[in-house]
Amino acid sequence: MAERLDDLDLTAFRSALGRFPSGVTIVTTRSEAGTLHGFTASSFAALSLDPPLVLVCLDRGATCFPDFMAAKRFVVNIVTPAHAELAMRFAAKGENKFAYGGFAFDEHGHPLLPDAAAVIGCELEEAVPGGDHVILIGRVRETRTGGDEPVAWYRGGFLRLGERAA
User: What residue ranges carry the coiled-coil annotation (predicted)?
Assistant: First the structure.
């Protein structure tokens, strides 16, 4: 029997959402104590050009949730095909996620992937409740772009992006 919430079939809802390809990011921060934290997010978007704002959604049940709520800065790394396995590790709970991947650090000590499709350094502008997630709104302070194309998440797997549409 399908799981239901307020007369909505949640399995069908998840399946419908899975039909929308979305980008994949690894979002990172460093606590004031110096501990590294991160998670994989496909709910990421540009919010505003003036001022420059982005948003990313974080599950309230994530182990790193309190650390991101206390953080003043975070980094959004847009994942390439080379980061697919790393993104899966950052989507899971437990283990030292930073033991894998070639992380470097920005001038504030926050981890970043130097070979990401793009890296967006943010100051936390606001955290807005959104159901079982919180929407982190970041004021963009710096950006870097890489040479490889990003991947998308589609129907439970990674989708490599091909040629650009005309």
Answer: none
